[in-house]
Amino acid sequence: AQKVTQAQTEISVVEKEDVTLDCVYETRDTTYYLFWYKQPPSGELVFLIRRNSFDEQNEISGRYSWNFQKSTSSFNFTITASQVVDSAVYFCALSEETSGSRLTFGEGTQLTVNP
Amino acid sequence: DAGVIQSPRHEVTEMGQEVTLRCKPISGHNSLFWYRQTMMRGLELLIYFNNNVPIDDSGMPEDRFSAKMPNASFSTLKIQPSEPRDSAVYFCASRHRAYNEQFFGPGTRLTVL
């Protein structure tokens, strides 16, 4: 069965600090997909990134970067030079090839960036 | 390009009433998903459709919940009769067959008194 764990329930940082959100997953499939979504205070779910299990290359997009390591079943998300607008709940999610398209979400990490 | 559209955005009803939530997926997307978000259970999949056909409804809590997708551009999630424990935010999401990411609508916040 697929499972996603985000051990950090809440993180609080001061603006301009770097912050890493952890995500650990469990799956028996060899083909799977990992995602990060952002849920700002307004409530919508915003897609940030998708990673395929066969592509371990890390990715950087502006201040955001993602570190995918199959050896530790982790898909961590780093925000560099955090800003107040980054304050949100961040969800990591997993989709297995054999489970169709269903997404299994982690519990989410509430990130608060203080000015 | 319009995203996923959900209506209503907020719904307050009394226990026992019928509630219908509506969703219009992104044009060209062939998969549609209904999720529910609560503090206790987080985000959980209720049901999803591929090409308008229900594929997995194992997340539907009980017979009071039903979902339909009569065509590629419209889906409904109905609760009859509603109960206070159904209070949650209900999200609809859609996905294009060529990609794996799902795009979410703004959600419907349901309160059952």
Helicity of chain B, as a percent range: under 10%
In whole angstroms, the N-to-C terminal distance of chain B is: 37 Å
- What is the arithmetic mean of pLDDT of chain A? 94
Q: How far apart are the termini of chain A?
A: 41 Å
The low-confidence parts of chain B are none
Q: Which shape of chain B, going by the Cα principal axes? A: globular
By secondary-structure content and strand pairing, the structural class of chain A works out as mainly beta
Q: What oligomeric assembly is this protein in?
A: heterodimer
What is the string of helix and strand elements of chain A? EEEEEEEEEEEE
Instruction: Indicate the structural class of chain B.
Output: mainly beta
Give the radius of gyration of chain A.
Answer: 14 Å
Number of helical stretches of at least 4 residues of chain A: 0
Q: How would you describe this structure in keywords?
A:
heterodimer, A: 115 residues, mainly beta, 6-stranded mixed beta sheet, 12 strands, globular, B: 113 residues
Describe what you observe in this structure.
The complex is a heterodimer of chains A (115) and B (113). Chain A is mainly beta. Chain A has no helices and 12 strands. Chain A has strands at 3-5, 10-14, 19-21, 24-26, 32-39, 46-52, 59-61, 64-69, 74-79, 88-96, 104-105, 109-114. In chain A, strands 2, 5, 6, 10, 11 and 12 form a 6-stranded mixed β-sheet that branches. In chain A, a hairpin with a 7-residue loop joins β10 and β11. The mean pLDDT of chain A is 94. Chain B is mainly β and 113 residues long. Helices cover 0% and strands 55% of the residues of chain B. Chain B is built from no helices and 11 strands. In chain B, strands 2, 4, 5, 6, 9, 10 and 11 form a 7-stranded mixed β-sheet that branches. In chain B, strands 1-3-8-7 form a 4-stranded antiparallel β-sheet, with no helix packed on it. In chain B, β9 (88-95) and β10 (103-104) form a beta hairpin. Chain B is globular, with a radius of gyration of 13 Å. The termini of chain B are far apart. The interface between A and B is medium-sized, with 21 and 25 residues.
